Every structure is written in C-alpha cells, then in structure tokens.
Amino acid sequence: MNIDSIKNGIVIDHIQAKRGMEIYELLKLKDLDCSVAIITNAKSKKMGRKDIIKIDKDIEINMDMIGFIEPNATINIVKNDKLVDKYKVKLPEKIVNIARCQNPRCITSVEKDLDQIFTLTDKKNQIYRCKYCEMSLK
Amino acid sequence: MKHLIDIKDLSVEEIEELIKVAKDIISNKEKYSHKCDGKKLATLFFEPSTRTRLSFEAAMMELGGNVLGFSEASSSSVSKGESVADTIRIVGAYSDIIAMRHPKEGAPLVASMKSVVPIINAGDGGHNHPTQTLTDLLTIQCEKNKLDNLTIGLCGDLKFGRTVHSLITAMARYKNIKFILISPKELVIPEYIKKDIIEKNNIEYCETTDIKEYMDQLDVLYMTRVQKERFFNEDDYIRLKDYYILNKEKLKSAKEDLCIMHPLPRVNEIATDVDEDKRACYFKQAEYGKYIRMALILKLLEVK
C-alpha cells in the first residue's frame, strides 16, 4: 500500500499496532486542516506490526502525551521532503490534564477546575502518582 | 514561606530542630508564653477532629496568640459550594497561619498553592497527618532519648492506618531501625510501603500475626485500632478484635523500658489495666503533640 510522503510535517512511528486511532483522538488531529494518514498494522522488523501517523504540516504536538501513551514511539521531522530530525519520545516526568485521578477521596474528585497533575515516581515500572493524593495511575 | 503538608517536606535536620525547640518549650514554658502575641491561628476543620483542633488551639494560646476558625464544614462557606482555594484566600487575609483538616486527600496541598500564609496539614482523609508523626517522633525522642537503634512494633490495622505509614516513612530515615509488623492477615502493611520504603532503605523487618511473638525485643510498641468496617465479614472481625488487645498478660515478656504508644482515640485495643503501667506513654504522647505544634507554629511563622 502506498501512502504519499509528506513535504513538511511530522511522522509518529513505532506506535503499538492498533493504537494509532487512540493517539489521533487524544492529539485532536481531526481538528487539523491538513492531510493526516493513519497507517495501522504496518509490517515492522522490530515490532512485528505497528501503527504510523503522518501529519502533513509542521505543527506543535503534545510530546508529553505521546511519551505517556507510547513511550517507545519515534518522532520524525520532515522539511522540504527531507528527514531533518528523528528522536525517541521520553517518558515525561510530569503529565498535566492527560489522565484523571480515579481516587474518589482525592480533592480533584470534587474540585473539577484543578489541573490533573501526575508525576513519574517509578521510571522502571512507569508508575505515575497523583500530585494531590499520591494514588498511582492505573 | 514554608508549609507543612507531608512529613517528607521536613528534612531530618529540620525535624531535629523542631524536637529541640519542643523540648526547650517543655522545660521553659514561660519563655515562650508571649512569642506569638498579636498573631492569629485559623483552624479550618472541614471535618470534625476535636482532639487535633484543641491541640493546635492550645498550642497557639500557650504562645500568646489567638485562634479563630470552624470545626465542621456545615458551619463554613463550603456548605454553599465555595472552593478550598477561595476559602484559603479569604482566611489568609484574617490570620497569620492556618491549620487545616479536610476529608479530601490533597486539599491542604491545594490550599498551600493559593495561600499567602503558612498552611499546616492537620489531616487530609486517609492520606497525611504530619503533625501526628511529629508528635510520635517527639514522644520516642523524649521517652527513649534517641530516634535510631530501635526495634519498633506496629500493631493492629497496618493496611489503612495512615499514622503507621507516616511513622514508618519518618523512621526509615534513621539508622539501625527494625520494624515488627503485627497485624491480622486482612490488615497487613500495603506492598508499596514495604517495597518503596522499608525494603528500599534496607530496613530489617518481620511480619507476624502474634502480638506476643517479638514482645521481648521491642523498644517501642505502637498500637492502632482494628476497625470493624475494615472487615468483609463480621465473623472475622469478632474472631480478631480481641486478639490485638494489649493487656498486662501480653506485656509479661516486654522490656522494662518499653514505650507503649497509641495515636488515640482508643476504643478497646489497650486494656485500661495498662494505663497505670509506667511504660504506657499514650497520654503523654497527646501532651507532646501540643509542644511539637508550638515548635512548628514558631518555625513556620519564623518567630525566633
């Protein structure tokens, strides 16, 4: 299957197979006015199968969100048909308003205007804890 | 400006300094009786806790200061739907320091992010209660004359007991501490406390369901209440509730200088026949709570 290469934009590669749509939704890519391609179940030497998202525009994307959801993803920056930068996303130290605390005793359960903040407390096991009640994020 | 939200907000050195000041207050009460003249402490108790509130209020009064506040949410603007942040902004204009208890975990942290005066967490749900931990540390220091080289038995509800979790967190920073964890299997210490604090700090520990098994080794015995609502069935509760009652008979093998503690209130987990034992420190512990709160108020208000 052929998908046109992009001239200026971003390719999010090495997404776990079948999770591309989830990232598309969370990054609100449907709101963009450019072409966005989601390739699912593409063959991958490293992963067996993977998803890829191609965005035909140089936009700012929420790296913390991608790092939190897909810590193994890679980001490719394309300018004038050429790959100018490529890097792996990192597990963010802090995520803000990406996930909600599920603890019914947490202050965020009653004060809805508070930012939902989680900090990475255990990198090895990828455990994030709520800034307010310290409950781990499931 | 400093707040006290979590016992981890204080370094070992800061805790040592607070204990030093508290001990000086005990010995020289008159010297401190006007240190907070003209200052006001607001006690904002969004859920009732008479004991803790009175301890804070007595602490401020003994420093010469005044107190204002409320003792339950129904008598505050919270009942009209006001946010914690708004309440704190208003109260901050009327007081120099705020002690706050709230049923929701993290509420004092939210308050500290908006407050123009120091906030003391006086308990947030089942989460933190740092002044209880400071009270426990002062009690151990005064009764044992040290905070290191101790074997500490923790007995009762180790699963939900926040005072136990905080005490373990605080004591884990001192040298040569050994914990004896005594509880029914339904109420054992949570895995994250065991792994993230006890094992991570290479602290020796034993787990047992038998209160008498290690009694002869203990320097401190910290009792907590086994609460009926923690059990899934009443039969288990009835079977276990009396098993963790400390009485004279169970203390037979205990050291002569054992320090018996309890955050109070007790229901029946320490028999009243233990009250007269010289090793019973739980009523003194409540008094120490006032002195450490006095030291804390002075520190946060930066009064020399």
Query: If interface size is counted as residues with C-beta under 8 Å from the partner's C-beta, which chains form the largest one?
Result: A-B, 18 and 17 residues
Beta-strand share of residues of chain A:
35-45%
Number of strand segments of chain A: 8
For the record, what CATH class of the largest domain in chain B applies? Answer: Alpha Beta
The description of the largest β-sheet of chain B is: 5 strands, parallel
Class by alpha and beta content of chain B: alpha/beta
The low-pLDDT segments of chain A are none
Largest sheet of chain A: 5 strands, antiparallel
Shape of chain A: elongated
Order of helices and strands of chain A: EHEEHEEEEE
- Low-pLDDT stretches of chain B: none
CATH superfamily of the largest domain in chain A, by name, is Aspartate carbamoyltransferase regulatory subunit, N-terminal domain
Give me the CATH fold name of the largest domain in chain A.
Alpha-Beta Plaits
Helix content of chain B: 25-40%
SSE succession of chain B: HEHEHEHEHEHEHEEHEH
Cα(first) to Cα(last) distance of chain B is 15 Å
- Look at the structure and name the CATH superfamily of the largest domain in chain B: Aspartate/ornithine carbamoyltransferase
CATH class of the largest domain in chain A: Alpha Beta
Q: Explain this structure to me?
A:
The complex is a heterodimer of chains A (138) and B (304). With 138 residues, chain A is mainly beta. Chain A has helices at residues 20-26, 63-69; strands at 9-16, 36-44, 48-55, 74-79, 82-88, 94-96, 117-122, 127-130. Chain A has two domains: 9-88, Aspartate carbamoyltransferase regulatory subunit, N-terminal domain (Alpha-Beta Plaits, 2-Layer Sandwich), CATH 3.30.70; 94-130, no CATH class. In chain A, the strands form two sheets. Chain A has a five-stranded antiparallel beta sheet, covered by helices on one side. A three-stranded antiparallel beta sheet of chain A has the order 6-7-8, covered by helices on one side. The longest helix of chain A is centred in the first third of the chain and has 7 residues, at 20-26. Chain A is elongated and about 50 Å long. Chain B folds into two domains: 7-128 and 289-300, Aspartate/ornithine carbamoyltransferase (Rossmann fold, 3-Layer(aba) Sandwich); 131-286, Rossmann fold, CATH 3.40.50.1370. Chain B has nine helices and nine strands. Chain B has helices at 12-27, 50-62, 84-92, 107-114, 130-144, 162-171, 191-199, 234-241, 282-300, and strands spanning 40-45, 66-70, 97-102, 119-124, 150-155, 177-182, 204-208, 220-223, 259-261. In chain B, strand 6 (177-182), helix 7 and strand 7 form a beta-alpha-beta unit. The mean pLDDT of chain B is 93. The chains are: A mainly beta (138), B alpha/beta (304). At the A-B interface, loops of A face helix 4 of B.
